[in-house]
Design brief:
By secondary structure, the protein is of the alpha/beta class. The chain contains eight helices and 16 strands. The protein has a nine-stranded mixed β-sheet, with helices on both faces. A five-stranded parallel β-sheet has the order 13-12-14-15-16. Strands 2-3 form a two-stranded antiparallel ribbon.
Length: 320
């Protein structure tokens, strides 16, 4: 049984995504336990290969159809690499590519897939994966002893520093994949929402609000606190979906990933989609009346005081 681990490299706008380094660090730990190597699959951007020192081998596939993310092109390229390298494990982030590709590649590769993974360990020849189910309300632990498996990992589950290594990888392989000129789909354009002058990713501190705010009119409470602190107001997806705040102020997998020095969360339950976007904040303070809310699993400090009592008191104290 192979001990090799392959990681799909995620990148955009000329830079590598943090989840790539998180997966490389975990891949190194698992490959070391199994006596294997770490392989990185880099599609569409050879210039980034030198930054992947956490891998033993970087397999680069360059083609016009891979210049932007296109599920069909990525699937074809990865299917070729899986057949060529035959790793024990394929790691993909639970992101747009991961949601598209994990199941289809598992079908092609005749392998089981474990989704929404937050922990991975080697137990002898077995892989033990811990995954979130029911929106993070339950954790399922599964031991896999197959010779091939696909895992999609929730971003922020592992430390990115573990996957960063100085210098270039030991080997960079340029790979040609056939069939990329004969695809049924085509990339047309990528549209980003207007920023409205607010960049929550650059903020040292964020005041963030969730479904617990109950109504748009109540946003004035948290906006006053944010203004008093001189920081942006952000929100979880339910607030954005209601149209109470613009899309650029959304924190989460389908919004922005933020790493402020302090993240103040009010009325946010802590769904996996939201946690993926903020769990790497240096300090997380959570306020939710539900003591079992998942947000408290990542918070450094928390309280079950009603936000409608706490937020005005904070604003008054800070403003005095």
């Amino acid at each position: 049984m192979s001990g090799d681990v392959m990681v799909l490299v995620e990148h955009g706008d000329g830079s590598l995504a943090d989840v790539t380094f998180e997966l490389l660090g975990k891949a190194r730990q698992l490959a070391s336990a199994w006596g294997g190597k770490v392989h990185a699959a880099l599609l569409g951007s050879a210039v980034l290969a030198d930054q992947l020192g956490g891998a033993d081998v970087v397999h680069v596939v360059e083609h016009a159809t891979l210049a932007d993310y296109l599920a069909e092109a990525y699937e074809r390229a990865l299917a070729y690499l899986l057949g060529d390298v035959a790793p024990r494990l394929l790691l993909i982030g639970t992101s747009t590519p991961g949601m598209d590709l994990a199941a289809s590649l598992a079908q092609y590769w005749d392998a089981p897939v474990v989704a929404y993974v937050i922990a991975l360990e080697a137990a002898g020849d077995e892989l033990v994966a811990t995954a979130q189910i029911y929106g993070g309300k339950l954790l399922a632990e599964v031991a896999v002893d197959r010779d091939r498996v696909v895992c999609s990992v929730i971003g922020g589950s592992f430390h990115a520093d573990a996957g960063k290594a100085a210098g270039a990888p030991a080997e960079i392989r340029m790979v040609e994949v056939g069939g990329l000129d004969d695809l049924r789909s085509k990339f047309h354009a990528r549209r980003l929402p207007e920023a409205d002058g607010i960049d929550i990713t650059a903020a040292d501190m964020l005041v963030s609000v969730g479904r617990g705010i109950a109504g748009k009119d109540n946003l004035e409470l948290v906006q006053e606190l944010a203004d008093t602190l001189g920081v942006p107001l952000s929100a979880s997806r339910p607030v954005i979906d209601q149209g109470w705040l613009p899309k650029p102020q959304q924190v989460g997998k389908s919004g922005q990933k933020v790493k402020p020095r302090a993240y103040l969360a009010f009325g946010i339950s802590g769904a996996p989609e939201h946690l993926e976007g903020m769990r790497n904040a240096e300090l997380i303070v959570a306020c939710n009346t539900d003591s079992s809310a998942p947000i408290f699993d990542v918070a450094h400090y928390g309280t079950t005081v009603d936000l409608f009592d706490l937020v005005p008191a904070l604003s008054e104290q800070l403003g005095s």
